[in-house]
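Incident log, structure service

09:12 report received: a user says their structure output differs between two submissions of the same chain.
09:20 pulled the input from the user's history:
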Amino acid sequence: MRGIKLSELIDVRILQRMQDAFSEFTGMAALITDEKGVPVTKNSGFTHLCIQLIRKCEKGRKRCAECDRMGAIHTYENGTPTVYTCHTGLTDFAAPIMVEEHMIGCVIGGQVRTQPLDEAHERKVARELGIDEETYLAASREIHIVKEEHIMRAAKFLTELATVLSDMAYQNYIALQNSTKLEKISRSQTNRMVDIYTNMENTLSLWIESAKLSLANNDPKAMAGAMEMLIKNGNEILAAFGNTVEYVKMTDNDLSLKETSYNLRQIINDAIKKQRNAIKNRRNRVRINTSDEMSVCFFGDMGRLKQLMSMIITIGNSFTKDGIIEINAWSEKVDYADMIGMEVRTNKSELQQSSITALNKYMQHANMNLLICTEEDEKSLFILRMLVEQLSGRIVFEAAKDGVTVTRVIVPQLEMK
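09:34 re-ran on a clean worker, output below:
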């Protein structure tokens, strides 16, 4: 939230229109300020006393700003509309504009009286502010006396207005943060592609030299080892390259589906093979369970489904070590389509409940601020969310009993008869 201003999240023209509407409806003064009490909008319905006398002098302006700010803070701390008496004796009310528990501004209203004019008090305030007493007193007599119940209704209305503005600011804040993070990730794509190419070049050069040496020494065992190293590193490079290309396609709005017939069991097996080395490195074991009633062949975007299966296996593998990765698949007829369920369950999970909650919120709202992860993980989660969205599916993360974490994806596909 550091450095983010209210005017950067909501257009000042919108703030002004909503403020003007409030003032016109209630017949009371209104103003929207930043978190420091500095006005963001032009005043609406201000009294002559306040705008032409009190806020014209430096001492009065500072006192007003502090009153406005403290009123909004009090509202935030107590969770109720704050009605208070300002430094001159007028009745005001305030409500804060919040984003993620930070006050970025406040809406204030009022400049009315609840009691008859106290001339001695008015003269005292005029002297303190250095304003001519008679001029001040004449302007004070123009202030309306308003019943307390009317003030409370206006204060409640003001609080509801502040809540609406807070919601607007929050949504725009999330969009701004996501845009900033995606822009940062996008800028890294060129470097990422160069790194992949360099890695690929080094791997091939190393393999070629190893193969030449093996052939020169007529060593089939060394040749087989060199081939295994090429396959291992090549799969890792292709996976990274594929994720980068997929990210670029998504950010360029290349969302066209490429549908064909496929075997779901084969997709699962291919995804496991693709992640075999990563699973082995974390000393995990894999179990596959597929429903006997499930069809063998379906029609849909096989490429995206295969990538989706690979990604949730990768996620499951990252959740546990020296454990078991259980992959379940099933299908259920719903109207014209079949809902395919793919589930990865991992025991000995290292994931905390707070992280599971954050993952689910991200998948629902795409709020990257909910996640604490590396840039590469952000990109992978972005791709995962987009894949599920493109396939018209849904994804959920769950914490089951005995340290088991579940990643479940359900997508509609067509059964091939």
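09:41 both user submissions now match this output. Likely a transient worker issue. Closing.
09:42 reviewer note: The CA atoms of residues 316 and 346 lie 6 Å apart. The radius of gyration is 32 Å.
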